Automatic annotation (TrEMBL):
InterPro entries: LRR_dom_sf, LRR_R13L4/SHOC2-like. This is Disease resistance RPP13-like protein 4 isoform X1. Residues 97-296 form the Disease resistance R13L4/SHOC-2-like LRR domain. Pfam families: LRR_14 (PF23598). The keyword Zinc-finger does not apply. It comes from Prunus avium. Keywords: Repeat. The gene is LOC110765949.
Amino acid sequence: MLVGLARDAQLFNFDSDWLWMPSCKTSICRRACLVFYQNPTSPGEEDLFTVFNVNSNYLSFKREWLSKLKKVVVLQLGRWQSSPTHHIEVDDEGLFLKGIGAQHYLSFKYLSLRGISGITRIPSCIFNIISLEILDLRACHNLETLPSDISSLRKLTHLDISECYLLEGMPKGIGKLSSLQVLKGFLIANLKNTPSRLGDLAKLKKLRRLSIYIGTEAVMHDKEFETLKEISSLRRLKISWAVVSPKLKEQIAHQSLDFSFPPDLEKLDLQGIPVKEVPPWLNPRQLTNIKKLYIRGGELCSLDHAGEETVTECKWRVEILRLKYLSNMKIELPKVEDQFPHLLYLEKVKCHEKDIFWSKSQAVDKCSRAYHFL
């Protein structure tokens, strides 16, 4: 039924040889799909609204073709699948992308290059498209540099540059993206390559989701992480650490004293914490409204602070706790229940002891069955 309705509405054209597969033909609809090794070349390209990569893993079209897309709104060239096994390659280091800047797009809102291998830099013409709202560069593993200034993208609401591990730094102008709501992959590198710092994000009054990657060459300003508390709209925060040297570990341990968080933060996701002792900022006094706490990977041994009191004010208000891949973590369920009295779900996977999957509903159900048995 869904395919039939889509065909009747001319949402997509479907291949006659394979009934359920959208076609690259553009003659009867305004949305084209990249299928296998085909590229849309039919008449009507100038009127296309959408180009969507269904399952093509090799992009080889010429930049002249992109320059014809005068009315395009959505350009999904990267993968839509979540698995990195869906690999996409280009043969010219992404030079075909310069064709996007050949026209002054007025309606272009969405560009995804997610998971495309071989793109080493993003041409500056893309950052001149002032109508762009969503830019997805996630997992472009060969990406090294971005344009020096991205402040022209004033309508941008979502920017994803996570999993770009060769990226050298952040361009200037991020603090001027006043419409930004989601920023993933903000890189803290050396001072030379990162003119934009965490303090600039305090200007983003609509930012509700942020992920930070602390690279192997990270150099941090004094009290830099204190500025996080000034992002009052922030609700979800993820911090990831690269595999670091002993020298950088000392710096991180010192800098950890400077962490402060916005008062209404609801979710905190920590990956690869490079210290064994729980840092001073990871405590219920600072994170009073946290409902979800995820800790994945790293050297953390426990969640106990030295000399911590057991009064009610020190208890976590976390409802969902996930602990994964913490080989040094030693924590038992009774201790967790004491520290997290509001807990609804616990997941402890591949830590020091056996795995635990616990939910309050299951625990209540067991108690109820035992009561009725007695």
